[in-house]
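Let's inspect one such protein example.
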Amino acid sequence: METLQIPDKEYFSIGEVSQITQVVKHTLRYWESEFKLLRPARKSSGQRRYRKEDLELVFKIKDLLYNKRYTIEGVKKYLLADKRKKQIDLPGTETEHSPDSKILRELKEELKQILKLLKK
């Protein structure tokens, strides 16, 4: 992945992001509508405020679409799986085997049984 050196700033405008990533502004706006993970903050005037994490995500999306030839849907699935993997790897996060998820599964089954009874 060809990530250029990202300047040491807290926020970037869409013009700066376009220049750094070599992705045109209208494409960045389109990607915001397609990829839920790409949601830059906005000033009170409505201008986008991208963070370094947003720029890294733009580089990743660009690489997946243009270099690895993923489709939009493929990139969405990849990013979602990547996000889930990172959440599981973090200490203290919920996994399928955690006590909380067991309780939720049991609760779901109980609610299904109650729903069955109510439908009779």
About this structure: Residues 1-89 form a domain with the Multidrug-efflux Transporter Regulator; Chain: A; Domain 2 fold (CATH 1.10.1660.10). The mean pLDDT is 88. The first strand starts at residue 41 and ends at 42. The longest helix spans residues 99-119.
